Amino acid sequence: MLFRSEKQKNNRYAQEYVTHFTSGGYIPGIETEYTLINQIAPSITVEQVNEFLKQIISDKNIVISLTAPDKEGVTLPTKADLLAVFNKAAHATIAPYVDTVTNEPFMSELPKAGKVVSESKDAALDATIWTLSNGAKVIIKTTEFKKDQISMNAQGKGGVSIFPTSDIINTKVLTEVVTLGGLGKFSQTELTKMLAGKLLSVTPYAGAENQGINASTNPKDLETMMQLVYMMFTQPRTDQEAFDSYMERMKAQLLNAQMNPMVAMVDSINKVVFNNNPWKTRFTVEDLSKINYARIMDMYKELFATVKDYNFIFVGNIDPATLKPLVEQYIASLPAAKAPLKPTQAAAVKVNKGEVKNVFNRAMQTPKATVLDFYSGSIPYTLENTMTLSFLDQILDILFTEKVREEQGGTYGVSCSAGISRYPMNQTVLQIYFDTDPEKYAHLNEIVKNEIKNMTVSGPRAEDFNKVKEFMLKKRKENLQENGFWMGVLSSKYNLDFDSYTQYDALLNAMTPEKVKQLAKKLIDQNNQIDLIMLPEAAK
Q: String of b and e for 271-280 (b: at least 16 CB within 10 Å)?
């Protein structure tokens, strides 16, 4: 018998059944497993763990594997070389590792607290809004979906669009590089040790027109999360040694990535679709020398210098009475002397217009054809249009699975994606992507194009439309029980001034095949179509 919990999702149960069927074992359910772990875990000793390790790691039944680039100039070690390295390590005298963990607090001195100066309610979304003394806003939605989850998103306007084109390379690695050094006086390694046993994450991001911090934790570790958020704004740390190590890792990764044939496809997409836009150019080994660590730290500080226009959104198992003093201590105290940043259109990536077909060849170990059909245009960014485009995307997924994969057996799958952008505003794209036998690509792509054309004339089949609508109605009910969904709804409203919630149900119930057909026609009739086809060198 499988014991159930009202907080468990269906896919967890499904995965347990699959594992039981394919690998055997029992499926007692999470309650029984929890009871057994509580009975067994306390009796396990360090000595037992160490003894077990000796049993599974020995000098018998050893397999040594080596992965290396297959290219000229690379000398691979012989079997004897590998055995010599193994034996040397096996007989080396190694002193026991001595760990050092500081007992210092994250913040030796707390900042001067600010205040919540006003409170209001968002009745439609059942949220509370606090306005802080430094100009920031805090939006709170308390839920009981997950007892151990609190999510936070802080976002302000600006983004990397405020920087000149000479900083493009720095922007591509900005938040990745900034986090290498840790926070305050603690390195990233020290922070990791200090946070052992705590359930939380704090991650900065910088988009084209906004920047902010995503964070998550549980009620127990909430104050620690808030301290790290404060430090992420005010105390990013430089660590040259960590940066140098990062550069070495990046160099090795980029050198290996260049051997992947898909690199040529990525380069072609930027050249043909985006007109060699520098904001879309692939990061290369040559770009590493253009990274300026000091400049990146200055850019980050500029982006996070003021929270005057920031929205801090909290969703989850939140007690407002507990949260309020923490907000006043760690968020209302953040700097706000400087004026809010203003995003520009400098980083907007526009799609080329017109009809283009680009066929090129690339050396491949495993010959295949890669096809990308790219339709674009301008359609107003509204909730109804984004929903209708989602219908079109999902209907095409069903259609191509049947027509291309099942009937033709020509590919493992055809991937469709579609969306309407806010940056640049109203830019709309529909992408169809698949891999296939080089001898079949032309025939399969003709099927794809004919089905898209037919969609603009006859619209979707009733069974496909009904299947998608049924799925979206079901998904809507599930989403209403997800913290991530409500975070998205609140972020859209308060960061983008876009209501993605109140009219959703009415629009979904009113959706028709005719609306899908008309939107498809409106997009395709703008006559912006780019075909990118990558073939192996031997193909004609």
A: bbbbeebebb
* DSSP structural state of residue 236: B
Q: What is the DSSP letter of 8?
A: S
Q: Is the peptide bond before 424 cis (omega within 30 degrees of 0)?
A: yes
What string of DSSP letters covers 392-448? HHHHHHHHHIIIIIITT---S--EEEEEEEETTEEEEEEEEEEEE-TTTHHHHHHHH
Alpha helices in 195-338 (DSSP H): 222-234, 240-257, 262-268, 293-303, 320-330
What's the full length of the chain, in residues?
540
This prediction has a pTM of 0.87
Going from the N-terminus, what domains does the chain have, and what CATH number goes with each? 10-90 (no CATH), 116-330 (3.30.830.10), 355-536 (3.30.830.10)
CB 217 within 8 A of CB 199: yes
Please state the φ and ψ torsions of residue 145, each to the nearest 5 degrees. -65, -40
Tell me how crowded residue 253 is: count the other CB atoms within 10 A of its CB. 12
Helix-helix angle 320-330:222-234, to 10 degrees: 20
Q: Residue 529 pairs with which residues in a beta bridge?
A: 355, 375
Amino acid at 291: I
Q: How far is CA 366 from the centre of its chain?
A: 29
Encoding tokens for residue 292?
Answer: 């300026």
For residue 399, give both structure tokens: 């259609």
Per-residue pLDDT tens over the stretch 300-357 = 999 999 999 999 999 999 999 999 999 999 999 999 989 999 999 999 999 999 999 9
C-alpha distances in angstroms, 356 versus 344, 352, 438, 531? 30, 9, 20, 6
Q: Cα–chain-centroid distance for residue 272?
A: 26
Collapse the DSSP code of 134 into the 3-class scheme (helix H, G, I; strand E, B; otherwise coil) and give the result. Answer: coil
What is the residue whose two structure tokens read 């066929």?
A: 359
Give, rounded to a whole angstrom, the gap between the first and last alpha carbons of the chain: 60
What confidence tier does 37 reach under pLDDT thresholds 50, 70, 90?
confident
Q: Which residue reads 């079109």 in tokens?
A: 392
